[in-house]
Amino acid sequence: MHEACGVFGIYAPDEDIARLTFFALFALQHRGQESAGIATTDGKNLQVYAKMGLVSQVFDEESLSQLTGNIAIGHNRYSTRGSSQSSNVQPIIVGNGSNTFAVAHNGNITNAEPLYQELADLGYTFRTSTDTEVIANLILSSSEKDWPSKIRHAMRRLQGAYSMVIMTKDTLFGVRDPLGVRPLCLGTINSNALVLASESCALDHIGANFVREIEPGEIVSITENGVESYQEETDKRALCIFEYIYFSRPDSTINGRLLYSARQAMGEGLAEEYPVDADLVIGVPDSATAAGAGYALRSGIPPAEGLIKNRYMGRTFIEPDQRIRDLGVKLKFNPLRSILEGKRAVLVDDSIVRGTTTPQVIRLLKKGGVKEVHMRVCAPPIRYPCFFGVDMATRWELIAAQKTIPQIRDFIGADSLGYLSIDGLIKAVALPRDIFCLACFTGEYPMPVQLEMDKLALETLATSRQSPLT
After folding, report:
1. Annotated catalytic residue: which of 5, 378, 437, 440?
2. Are 63 and 133 members of one domain?
3. Which pTM value belongs to this model?
4. Which domain holds residue 11?
5. Which residues face 309 on adjacent strands?
6. Considering the domain boundaries, does residue 257 fall inside one?
7. Both 397 and 268 in a single domain?
8. Please, are residues 389 and 180 in contact by the beta-carbon 8 Å criterion?
9. What's 426's domain CATH number?
10. 460 C-beta neighbours (distance < 10 Å), count
11. Pairing with 115, which of 172, 306, 321, 426 sits 20 to 30 Å away (CA)?
């Protein structure tokens, strides 16, 4: 399961904005590994450098030295709308003359296809197959005179999830959708630099101080005069619960809650709901390490680092041969036989989506000498797909939509299986239930959705209209 993207923006007249953006994107690398890009402005011209690959693969000293100015926005991409190709990298620059701006987007627009048709009929051209360009052209189509009003015009037409950073020649904007599905926060560096980021961990890495989160439905503009907020009241919230379970880094804070503490509490909840006699607790590294610690703490069963993770398993452009590919999770994890031999293990993981990886991990543990594997999962059974920026699966691919829990237990090869309940999950997060989107567990979506959404629908649409995609 993958999240859509990470975004970052900075207004800093006296800083090396490209280098700071690079390190912020490096901190947000977990949110997207397909492509990375940075756009900057010096007050007159906008420029962008974006390519396929990890942040460290895309940028070097030479490329960063050419990205000058006092405002920058950056993006890490994992495609949830539009294919993984070079024409879809972000940020993108659109418009001309005084209407030129750059945008980077995290999320997914559920009504992108009809908006695309409408804008194409009006003569707007598309160079990508992303919903980000639909947003950009929708902003351009507004007859409003000022940028906040143009952005608000687009927001009133958009359905779905979006946290965005937008950069004109002299202003940085941060935008969050009215439901607040994806996170976005504001920070400062010294007294004259302001930054926006998907997660607070990016602020920590560049020496910025956290100020606050951008509110759902809020637009903030950042100029030499400071921060100005444009807020419309919203009566509904739908923050993605998987930001707490998996997506965000454990050292990030959202809604005042440190993610590590929330995940540890999830493990404690699992120990309360599904106790078992065992010899050791293993949290699947790295996403379930905190939850494993919580299970061990509450149960009194000692924790163990029974699986060693290869920390360099990021995206690569070197294709493995079939023999290496067949090794599967062995490329990612290596069991410690001397610790595991003859033991009854509690294996804690963040989620089970398709059920393709979990059986391999359990087999790996049993080959490593484990006598019993008792599977415990932080996320309740995922029975419905996500349409708001998570590349999850179609419903027929979700194992919990097709099998009962005993059937899943047998399929993955576990000796027992326990999922944290929704009530247990909310208790662990320690925030009101009504601020979260729980649709992947309940099927109750916070807005109307098309239940069979094609990730490449915009690409197909563009091809049928012979739009100049490259």
Report:
1. 5
2. yes
3. 0.90
4. 2-238+458-464
5. 333
6. no
7. yes
8. no
9. 3.40.50.2020
10. 12
11. 172
Contact 217, 230 (CB under 8 A): no
Residues 267 and 234 in one domain: no
Is there a catalytic annotation at residue 5? yes
Q: Is residue 126 part of a domain?
A: yes
How would you write the pLDDT of the chain (470 residues) with one tens digit per residue? 445 589 999 999 989 999 999 999 999 999 998 999 999 999 999 999 999 999 999 999 999 999 999 999 999 987 655 455 677 899 999 999 999 999 999 999 999 999 999 999 999 999 998 999 999 999 999 999 999 999 999 999 999 999 999 999 999 999 999 999 999 999 999 888 999 999 999 999 999 999 999 999 999 999 999 999 999 888 899 999 999 999 999 999 999 999 999 999 999 999 999 999 999 999 999 889 999 999 999 999 999 999 998 876 554 445 556 666 556 677 788 999 999 999 999 999 999 999 989 999 999 999 999 999 999 999 999 999 988 867 666 888 999 999 999 999 999 999 999 999 999 999 999 999 999 999 999 999 998 776 555 555 666 666 665 544 43
Give dist(CA 87, CA 72) in Å, integer.
Answer: 20
CATH of the domain at 169: 3.60.20.10
Nearest CA to 115 out of 455, 422, 458 is that of 458
Q: How far apart are CA 326 and CA 271, in angstroms?
A: 34
Q: How far apart are CA 295 and CA 289, in angstroms?
A: 10
139 with 269, same domain? no
* Cis geometry, peptide bond prior to residue 91 (ω within 30 degrees of 0): yes
Residue 68 one-letter amino acid: T
* Dihedral over alpha carbons 369, 370, 372, 373 (to 10 degrees): -130
Q: Token pair for residue 299?
A: 């149960």
15 part of a folded domain: yes
State whether 179 and 223 are in the same domain.
Answer: yes
Q: Is 346 found in the same domain as 199?
A: no
* E strand or H helix at 112: helix 112-121
- Is 20 inside a domain boundary? yes
Query: Residue 178 burial by CB count (10 A; 0-12/13-18/19+): exposed, middle or buried?
Result: buried
Domains of the chain: total: 2
The beta strand positions in 198-319, using DSSP E, are 209-213, 218-223, 226-231, 239-240, 253-254, 257-258, 280-283, 307-309
